[in-house]
Specification:
Layout: H1 5-19, H2 24-31, H3 35-42, H4 50-60
Organism: Microbacterium commune
Keywords: DNA-binding, Transcription, Transcription regulation
Protein name: Helix-turn-helix transcriptional regulator
Length: about 70
């Protein structure tokens, strides 16, 4: 069975954040969300709106669809 998209998105966000040497605190601040909320996204616990996915993608410098592609 494959992981739910929110788990895939969370792993992608975490990997991209690490690759860009960003802390959770730094990325959360840039997004205007709490560190706790961002941590929930990275753990795949949050259901995001499409607007939130767009904002994350923009902040990480990728296309939105790249956050939900299963590898």
């Amino acid at each position: 069975m494959t992981d739910p998209l929110k788990k895939v998105l969370g792993a992608q966000v975490r990997d991209l954040r690490f690759a860009r040497h960003l802390s959770q605190e730094g990325l959360a601040e840039e997004l205007g969300v709490s560190t706790r909320y961002l941590a929930g996204i990275e753990r795949g616990e949050r259901n995001l709106t499409l607007d939130s996915v767009d904002a994350l993608a923009e902040q990480l410098g990728v296309e939105a669809h790249a956050l939900i592609v299963r590898r």
